[in-house]
Amino acid sequence: MLKFKYVSQGNQPSLSPLDPITIRSSRLNQVFQGRVSLCGQQGGCTLGREGLLEALLMLYRECSSPALMKIHNVANFVNKFSEAVAELQALQPCVKDFDVRAVVGRGHFSEVQLVREKATGDLCALKVMKKAVLGAKEKVVFYEEERRVLALNSSPWIPQLLYAFQDKEHVYLAMEYLPGGDLMSLLNRYEDQFDESMAQFYLAELVEAINSVHQLGYVHRDIKPENVLIDRTGHIKLADFGSAARLTANKTVAVPTLPVGTQDFLSPEILTALNGGPNCTYGIECDWWSLGVIAYEMVYARSPFSEGTSAKTINNILNYQRFLKFPEEPRASKQFVDLLQKLLCGAKERLGFQGLRCHSFFSSVDWNNLRQVRHRTSFVPQLHTEDDTSNFEEPEQAAPRPGSAAHQGALPVGFQGQDLPFLGWFFSRPLATLAKAESTSTGLNSPAKANSMEK
Known about the structure:
Strand order of the largest sheet: 4-5-6-8-7-13
CATH class of the domain at 182-372: Mainly Alpha
Shape: globular
Structural class: alpha+beta
Helix content: 25-40%
Distance between the termini: 60 Å
Radius of gyration: 24 Å
Largest sheet: 6 strands, antiparallel
Number of helices: 15
Strand content: 5-15%
Oligomer: single chain
């Protein structure tokens, strides 16, 4: 059976190969027009017109290798479509469209650059990942999930993805630039400690951000201050979905799944699953545990479970009932301590989205207008220039990596298919969607607009 997923016209009966050619041709035209997307068979993946275009370009790149060009039919194919492919490639975004202004972040597998589009002067954050480093199957899967989360997103609590594209060496994610730095840098400004009212402001926004991820059908699994970014008006957005995992129909994460986030913020159930324990399933509750760890660090200026070695930290988390302590200084309110006790606990007892909204610690929060109000002492970045990166800590130098096997020694002979794991990566957000997102979010791109709102 030929199955179609209807995007704008509602679900209709599947097509049969016995349907008239004219009907099938009409539906095929709808696929190429973007009105209908083809349904894939792997967890709801879709192969729309962008994916079909990528498949053509990948095939062309493979066939252009000297070894395959010796085959008469392959050489004819390359020569026949060389001009058309060149035009198609020119229409797609590419790294040459941007000037790099600064590097604002580095991770194990990626680098985040502040870039300016040459044609328009617009700024964006460009996440760059080497295909050779992502070559392992599980890494490709999870960075594909990151791209999918960002493409699905329309929430003001998650950075807007503008483009996703690739070349032979790298894959790229171009996102809105958030110049306020991250929550870790902000904690450092306040000597690692907020008062409770300031903590309430950021925790309430983080509650909404985490829930927006869950609403997309994912669990983040790497909630930590470094992944909480601050826009130019002082509000937060949750970033870095390289460890995000899709939820099953039972609202759990398929185990085993790798990679996961930073150890100090991992919940007991994730650690149990990684060790192959008897209760190996977990769900969105693990993100609320991480929120509890962040809350603890905000007020007490220390981690609740980190201790010396990795083994000790893991043991403290797994035995949280014995190791969770509340310092006498600074003295915290009963409401705040109760919040921590209901987050740093067993998954079944842990507060979720609705429970957090109703908790007494957040009793003064106007949940419906979070992005329209600001705490009186909250941080608003002062930007000297549009491309100011002073709110980001200078990233560590990238460690040298050995060259991949594909680029060592003799050139590979024949079809390699090295780009096939990245088929379906391309994305371009419609201009109308971008305009709508800008109008509903206070994270505006223009400093002039942001300044006018602050007056």
